[in-house]
Amino acid sequence: MRILVVGGGTGGTIVANNLARRLSAEIRARKVRITMLSASDKHMYQPGLLYVAFGQMTPDQLYRDQASLLEGCIDFHVDPVEKFDLDQNKVTTKSGKVHEYDILVIATGSRIVPEQIPGLAEGAETFYSEASAVKMFKRLREIEEGTVAVVVGVPHKCPIAPVELIFGLHDYFKARGIRDKIKIKYHYPIGRIHTIKEVAIWAKPEFDRMGIEYETLFNVSEVDVENKVVRSEEGTETQYDMLIAIPPHRGMEVIEQNNLGEGGWIPTDRFKLTMNGHDNVYVLGDTTNLPVSKTGSAAHFEAEVVSENIASIVKIGVPVRDYDGKVYCFIETGHDSATYAMFNYQNPPDLKSPSKPMHWFKMAYNQMYWTSVRGLL
Amino acid sequence: MNTQTEKPFESMSTEDLQRLVEVAQLVTAARDAMSDEIVTRMAGALSEGLTLLDRLTRNEGLMHLLKVLDRQDTQYLLIALSDAVHAASQEIPAAPPATGGLGCMMRVVRDPGTQEGIRLLSVVGKHLSHSLREQHRRGG
Fold first, then answer.
1. Contact A367 B36 (CB under 8 A)
2. What digits encode the pLDDT tens for the residues B8-26?
3. Left if phi > 0, otherwise alpha if psi is -120 to 50, otherwise beta: which for B126?
4. Are A366 and B42 inside 8 Å of each other by CB?
5. Cα–Cα distances in Å, from A39 out to A249, A252, B77?
6. In this complex, do B40 and A28 lie within 8 Å of one another by their Cβ atoms?
7. Is the model's pLDDT at B139 over the cut of 70?
């Protein structure tokens, strides 16, 4: 049995490592082979970028060598896939090599596309890459007064990020003693301050307490970089001194180029996590078109289901579990408190009061992540 | 509401309440003493420790070695080996340089301690070779 994992992010790495553990006897007996194809030899802890943007972490703390995170029996290649030939059960990589498979796992992730909104890439700070997070931190250090505007693209990674950003900004300026000189204005594309109703209900009084101005139904149409104005499709505009964007994102180009799914999102069975029409192709993480958060947490829980099912297919011929839509998101509510949101397809989140121990739990998780992707937690 | 929450405390003695206060003070003190850096370092160490433990416990060779080391006679051998390494590290720097030649070789070989050592190595070599052949035959 040849199992091919395409993508070395959170989901792909957990699936590969879990499979290597579950199928160790079959791998030793040479009945199973696991191959991973990735675009990079480095693995980045993406949630850490928000900490970099506030000077709480440095970029070097976010990386590990991908090979060091993988079980020794996984055949790992830095050679991204360029062509998917699903009917022939094979893929072709950038180097021209062809990999055949019996089971394929696609976990290629997503990419931010600020260029979709005129002026956004040039005029707004973001924290979705090492360079942009460092640049945003430098800008935050420079600003002494004025309006910091936060805008949110659609769709975007990690739904909790806009709220965490606001809490972080409030605490950052408070710590610098200039909170009273900075106006923080939050713009959100739908008719309430967060897409998850329970988070919106919980966050509104918190925003009021912190003195955050907010405007809902604000879908960014353009950024006038020269005049420092951000405009909405609804016809409103905000003058800013510093603009921070949660940019829109799409699935990876290779998915679109191979016509695997509109917008780069692959149509996926919400319970089985198989690609619609291809029972031997599993999809997870940001790559799916599922109505769950595009977060490492979702990728993690999906990866556990996928690996358990693939292992059981190898051992007994049938899958054993369904994905229930579980997502567990930490919510940093400033620099020294946090809470969390846990939800699935059936149950909405029930947010608890923020606390310092939860913040430490998140701090600890930032380190435990590496144990998690190794398939241990 | 008040009655329900107060009831458990009403039945407690002053000593029990004092102990509860002490526990609460301990928790508060630990909480105040903690910082993001401490949590990060502890979690980092725990994370690496877990990974190491996982690697060690899934290492077949190491597990077998531990099993063998549980035997008293193997432990004696290990103690002897440690003593030998220690003694050799003391002796070698003080020993005069070898003069070379057959005569020197003969003097070394005539030493009963050296002969015992060579015999031990040859016995280990014989069993090592046997074990490797056996593992190869079983397919690893």
1. no
2. 677 788 888 898 998 888 8
3. alpha
4. no
5. 18, 12, 51
6. no
7. no
CA distances from A95 to A82, A83, A103, B73 (A): 9, 11, 22, 56
Residue A164 has pLDDT above 90, yes or no: yes
Give domain limits for chain B: 13-57, 96-140
Residues of chain B that touch chain A, judged by Cβ-Cβ distance less than 8 Å: 31, 34, 36, 39-40, 42-44, 46-48, 50-51, 54, 140
Instruction: List Cα–Cα distances, A92 to A2, A89, A222, A252, in angstroms.
Output: 15, 11, 39, 16
Domains A2-109+252-327 and A112-248 share a fold: yes
Assess whether pLDDT exceeds 70 at residue A304. yes
Q: What are the boundaries of each domain within chain A?
A: 2-109+252-327, 112-248
**For chain A, percent of residues with pLDDT exceeding 90:** 97
Cβ-Cβ contacts under 8 Å, A367 against chain B: 40, 43-44, 46-47
Cβ–Cβ gap A363/B43 under 8 Å: yes
Place B6 in a pLDDT band, splitting at 50, 70 and 90.
Answer: low
pLDDT tens, A331-340? 999 988 999 9
Average pLDDT over residues A181-202: 96
* ipTM computed for the complex: 0.75
Say which CATH superfamily domain A112-248 falls into. Answer: FAD/NAD(P)-binding domain (3.50.50.60)
Judge: domain A2-109+252-327, CATH 3.40.50.1820: no
**Tokens representing residue B51 in the block:** 């990974």
Amino acid, res. A281: V
Taking one residue from A and the other from B, the number of pairs with CB-CB distance under 8 angstroms is 42
How far does the CA of residue A69 sit from the closest CA of chain B (Å)?
10
